[in-house]
Design a protein that fits this description.
The structure is a single chain. It is globular and about 45 Å long. The longest helix is centred in the middle third of the chain and has 25 residues. It has an 8-stranded mixed sheet with strand order 3-2-1-4-5-6-7-8, with helices on both faces. It has a single domain, classed as NAD(P)-binding Rossmann-like Domain (Rossmann fold, 3-Layer(aba) Sandwich). Helix 1 packs across helix 7, helix 2 runs parallel beside helix 3 and helix 5 crosses helix 8. It contains 8 helices and 8 strands; from the N terminus they run E-H-E-E-H-E-H-E-H-H-E-H-H-E-E-H. The chain is of the alpha/beta class.
Length: about 300
């Protein structure tokens, strides 16, 4: 099985990679920035800077060379960054969080689509923050231009991050529609790992902060999450194990379901937000994203 993955060198992704790499038959290509990444045996790390569309294209070219005409069985788009200051821009002058979390993965999926096996799987990591009925700051509307080029009307802070995760889910829906249109049988899934401690999204924590989270914060939130499920703090090991199981087909959603969500550590397949199910919003994002990365619709 040939697997291509982003966000595989820390947190949830690293735990997923451990599970995926257990089979010696799996050939795994990981996109990551920097050098000296520690990965399991049999995993090949290729340079990838998600804040650069040129780097994404170069990564795709290298993957194609590595494939040698073979098809990709599984594509896992897991990498993400937290909400950044609106003034922080990518190499291509898009807002950094939007460029990294959405545009780069949109472009990766589009460029690698011809290399996907017709019965392969694509898993995009999203978040339950996309749903305002679950998380108060979830987006109630989506304007791609205001995310790419923030102004006074653009969402701020975690509202911005939540909007990029809505983009991930909408992209997954677009890919599922494309698979149907082309009479393919790709399994497309959007995965919400839930609030997870010990990941890069939580930021760097001191020894004292980690101890505080373990001794006080996590137990308190565990109790509160009985009433407010999204506040449950899960562990990367569990989320990574589930991500790997979905990617490898060991766990599959019911018919007509494509959104997998960890709720208090348990895998569920709920209905995503109303906005995520809006086909007009889905198609608008697809068209606007295509223009931004200079691809045909």
């Amino acid at each position: 099985m040939i697997i291509v993955m982003t966000g595989a060198t820390s947190g949830i992704g690293a735990e997923a990679l451990k599970n995926i790499a257990q089979s010696p038959d799996n050939k795994i290509y990981v996109g990551a920035r920097g050098k000296g990444r520690e990965v399991p045996d049999g995993v090949k790390v290729l340079p990838l800077e998600l804040s650069s569309l040129n780097s994404v294209r170069e990564f795709v070219d290298v993957v194609k060379q590595e494939l040698g005409g073979k098809k990709i069985d599984v594509l896992i788009l897991n990498a993400a960054i937290r909400a950044t200051d609106p003034s922080e821009l990518s190499e291509d002058r898009f807002q950094l969080t939007f460029a990294t979390n959405h545009l780069a993965h949109y472009l990766l999926a589009r460029l690698l689509w011809p290399q996907m096996d017709d019965e392969g799987r694509i898993v995009i990591t999203t978040s339950d923050t996309h749903d305002p009925e679950i998380v108060p700051f979830g987006p109630k509307s989506l304007n791609p231009s205001e995310l790419a080029y923030p102004n006074e009307h653009s969402p701020k802070g975690m509202r911005f991050y939540a909007s990029t995760k809505l983009c991930n889910l909408l992209t997954a829906r677009s890919l599922a529609a494309l698979s149907t249109k082309e009479n393919k049988s790709l399994g497309i899934m959007a995965f919400n790992p839930g609030l997870t401690g010990g990941t890069s999204l939580m930021g760097k924590q001191s020894v004292w902060m980690k101890a505080l989270v373990t001794v006080l914060v996590r137990p308190v939130l565990s109790i509160v999450s009985v009433f407010v499920p999204f506040l449950y703090v899960g562990k990367p090991k569990n989320a990574g194990k589930i991500l790997a199981a979905l990617a490898l087909g060991k766990k599959s959603p019911p018919a007509n379901k494509m959104y997998a969500s960890l709720v208090r550590g348990k895998l569920t397949f709920p209905t995503p937000s109303k906005l995520a199910l809006n086909d007009e919003v889905r198609d608008l994002l697809w068209r606007e994203s295509a223009k931004m990365v200079n691809l045909d619709v």
